[in-house]
Amino acid sequence: MPYCNKCGKEIPNGQHCVDCKTDHSISKIEQNKNTNWILIVGIILIIFVALFLVFKNANVVNEGDFTKSCPYECCKESSGFLVKPCLDLYECKESKCIAVDNDKDGLTDIKEKEIGTNPNNPNSDNDRYNDGVDPNPLISNSAKIDLVFTSKSWDWKYGNILLSMIGGIIIKPDLSIAEPKASIKVINIGDDHTNFVDFNIVFKVSNTIISQKQIHINKFNVGDEFQETYTQQITAGDVPDLLINLVQQQTNNWGIEIQNLNYEKFP
Ligand SMILES: [Ca+2]
Ligand SMILES: [Ca+2]
Ligand SMILES: [Ca+2]
Hints:
By secondary structure, the chain is α+β, with helices and mostly antiparallel strands. The chain has helices at about 30-55, 110-115, 160-165, 240-250, and strands spanning about 5, 10, 90-95, 95-100, 145-155, 165, 170, 175-190, 195-205, 210-215, 225-230, 235, 255-265. Among the domains are: about 5-45, no CATH class; about 145-265, Immunoglobulin-like (Sandwich), CATH 2.60.40. Helix content is about 20%, strand content about 30%. The strands form five sheets. Strands 5, 8, 11 and 12 form a four-stranded antiparallel β-sheet that branches. Strands 10-9-13 form a three-stranded antiparallel β-sheet, with no helix packed on it. Strands 1-2 form a two-stranded antiparallel ribbon. A hairpin with a 2-residue loop joins strand 3 and strand 4 (about 95-100). The longest helix has 30 residues, at about 30-55. Bound molecules: calcium ion (3 copies). One calcium ion binds near residues 125, 134 and 137.
């Protein structure tokens, strides 16, 4: 039986294609052809859109590998995968996002922002302890030395004063003419130790320094107490003639003082 392209079907013998009662404007075959084209164009469009999205999301494409997306929490440039960065204040370490500790003081930058310490300074309050171990990282720890006299005395040896000189001239300069004595108590009432405490005990007569002792204490912890009694032998040769005369006339005018107290301090 003859086939009519216009009708899209066979026509009985004796009839002609022109006799088809079908609308011949678009045959079924042409309709099928058009449908196929629409499908092909649609698929191509979908492929283009998919490729566009893939390349848009890739920040850096590694040489020789354009498709491997990062299967981990993060991937660095040299990882062999597409770069996948971490959030701000985190860094990629062994494919994991780890919070940054820029100044390496044991506190992350996130934590330092939270508590107000400086993420770029390991010791925000400039004391002995870094932020990560400092119980008060914004308040400087420091020793505070309290030093008091518990007693003072000055033992004049009047007999020796008389024996040590004749007519205002010292004849026995090694003779002890006085023995001042000072008992002190030192306490660290601060919140940090100090590696040293230095001070002088100064012995005076009529405001003239006639002798002094230099005291040094090694490491002194918080709450430590130190008590000591210091004596100083003063010989006739230690003091000028004038002072000996003064001592003979005014022996009560003496004084013992602490001077130049120094220890480790932090701002
Ligand atoms: Ca830190
Ligand atoms: Ca810090
Ligand atoms: Ca500190």
